[in-house]
Specification:
2 helices, alpha+beta, two-stranded antiparallel sheet
Length: 118
């Protein structure tokens, strides 16, 4: 679980806009996983003695972000990236994540369900 408002910071610092047909969220997920780091942007708030704790190598099966943008689910490089969104301002929506099955080649098939309290 990581809470750092990556999408907002990415919008402030990006130099290259997302390609045609892709969204900002897909661009953030791709940058984060390609750089294998939870904070792929230049930041002055990183405590460098503990920066190794933010590294994503090897890539995990799932990363849960706590960003303030709307909820999303993206799969990139066999890694599920899920953002449940803000709980109180998003109609009390939450995410249920189940790593449900391991395939013959060893990859994990996940079941992601967006639910809300009614």
């Amino acid at each position: 679980f990581f809470r750092h408002d990556l999408v907002q910071k990415y919008l402030m610092h990006h130099l290259i806009p997302p390609r045609e047909g892709s969204t900002v969220v897909q661009h953030v997920v791709k940058s984060m996983l390609d750089q294998s780091h939870l904070c792929p942007l230049p930041s002055s708030c990183v405590y460098w003695n503990y920066d190794y704790a933010l590294r994503l190598y090897p890539l995990p099966d799932a990363v849960i972000l706590g960003d303030q943008v709307d909820s999303f689910y993206e799969n990139y490089a066999e890694c599920d990236v899920i953002n449940p969104g803000p709980f109180s301002t998003n109609n009390f929506q939450f995410v249920v994540y189940r790593p449900s099955d391991i395939t013959d080649d060893g990859t994990v098939q996940a079941d992601v369900e967006f639910s809300q309290i009614e």
